[in-house]
From TrEMBL:
This protein's name: DUF2116 family Zn-ribbon domain-containing protein
Organism listed in the record: Mycovorax composti
Length: 124
């Protein structure tokens, strides 16, 4: 049975008339994909931005820990100038003495007194 023109369904993405099954929502696969990708875009952008910040933090820590160095002490200002974002880290590690290291994958830092930081590399 044919749907009257006044009740014709329109594509949820582009607004063109939809032909075919009665439960069809899109005029073609491209519109369906674009519509569903649009629904995920906000979440995907947030995840992409966080992953980019984590990779950047790791690269900055790695750049300060030159070849053969296991640790180095730096002021907070030097990390911030390089573009380090302290709110992004992958995990923490607490020592038996209660010190908490913040890690970006295999590179980490320990906040010290006077806005100084001890940068370390996890060799495990």
């Amino acid at each position: 049975m044919k749907t009257p023109a006044s009740e014709q369904k329109l594509c949820l993405y582009c607004g063109k008339p939809v032909k075919g099954r009665s439960d069809k929502k899109f005029c073609d696969d491209s519109c369906r994909n674009n519509y569903n990708n649009g629904l995920k875009a906000a979440d995907e952008n947030m995840i992409r931005n966080i992953n980019n910040a984590l990779r950047k933090n790791r690269r900055i820590l790695a750049d300060f820990l030159h070849d053969g160095m296991d640790k180095v002490k730096l002021p907070r200002e030097k990390l911030q100038t390089a573009g380090f974002h302290f709110k992004y880290h992958t995990h923490t590690y607490q020592t038996q003495k209660g010190h908490i290291y913040f890690f970006c994958y295999d590179y980490g830092y320990l906040p010290l007194e006077g806005d100084w930081y001890l940068l370390v590399r996890d060799k495990g």
